[in-house]
Amino acid sequence: MTETRIACPDKLNQDTGRSLLDEVRSGTIAQGGVVVLDLSPTESVDSRGGAWLVEIADYVHSQKSEFRVEGQQGLVAEFIDLIQPGLAERPERAQVKMGFFEGVGDEALGFIGELRQARRLLVEAIYWTLLGPFQGRGFRWANWTDEVYEMGVKAIRITFMMNFLLGLIISMLSAAQIEPFGLGIYVADLLVIAFARELAAVMTAVVVSARTGAAIAAELATMQVQEEIDALRSMGLNVSQFLVAPKILALVVCMPCLTALGMIAGILGGSIWGIFVLDITPDVWFHETLQSAHVKDVVQGLLKAVFFAVTIVLVGCHNGFRVRGGSRGVGLMTTRAVVADIFCIIVIDMIFALVFYYLMPAKL
């Protein structure tokens, strides 16, 4: 067995320890050999020098060689005895491969745990939004006005533009199918029903989820990573009251307004095609539009908007609170929040479609 002896300096500290590691790395270590550090010249070792000794031992063990220290005396010997577990070779942990049923069970338990966290967040959010303020528990109205501005006012332009363009597209595609039959005027009816019941609420919700939902998840995830959430709890503040409730109430107020704006924008976008391309006079077009507009259709769209608003905030907050890791975790949870928002929006929309299909069927 090949033995390599290396003499240590009289003082082992930050600088000499780094130099000693470089000397060990630059030397040739025979696989299966022995590396011996001679500590007989060493008179003192500080904590940083001991850390470099552990680093040297790890490097030698990584080369499949044995590592020993010899010659230590007095306080140096006592210090080496203290860090001896760090100098010993660490046994390799056998990686246990998870079986199929174990994997399914692990995913199921994780899903159940996440559902419990979501349920707790939902209960606390409902209490601090609807009940707490009326029981004298307080509400952050200053924060609420800031959230209304960020979630609602700043989203007006993008919401209007997206719905306007969508209305123009729907009008173009619909006219291409029915205008050859001389029924181009019925594009106005289709636009009203589509945007009042479906398109305005869904398109606005998607825009808000990509804008506001992502912002909520990123904000809370960053606070969680920087331990600001724990600091709020340590000060005796309820996180749901302090952070979640103002966001829910703000978006519940803003979302129906943005949806109503989306309805108007979509109908205006479609009217551009109907008036200037289909050559339908404005008075005829808008008369048909008003004839097709029903309160129940608008109520359905605005009711969807309320459910979408609560969902977007809760999903964003839920994912923000569950972040793990650093900046990468923030990015992953932000992406997850947006994907989950859009999925939940489609599911809620499907439920509304099933309910109103049997209760209030659309009629042209």
Can you summarize this structure?
It is built from twelve helices and five strands.
How would a textbook summarize the main sheet? 3 strands, parallel
Mass-distribution shape: elongated
Radius of gyration: 33 Å
Structural class by SSE content = mainly alpha
Helix content: over 70%
Low confidence ranges: none
The residue-averaged pLDDT reads 87
List keywords for this structure.
single chain, 364 residues, two-stranded parallel ribbon, elongated, mainly alpha, Transcription Regulator spoIIAA, 12 helices, 3-stranded parallel beta sheet
Task: Tell me what you see in this structure.
- This protein has twelve helices and five strands.
- By secondary structure, it is mainly alpha-helical.
- It has two domains: 85 residues, Transcription Regulator spoIIAA, CATH 3.30.750; 246 residues, no CATH class.
- A three-stranded parallel sheet has the order 1-3-5. It has a two-stranded parallel sheet with strand order 2-4.
- The radius of gyration is 33 Å and the shape is elongated.
- The protein starts with a strand and ends in a 5-residue tail after the last helix.
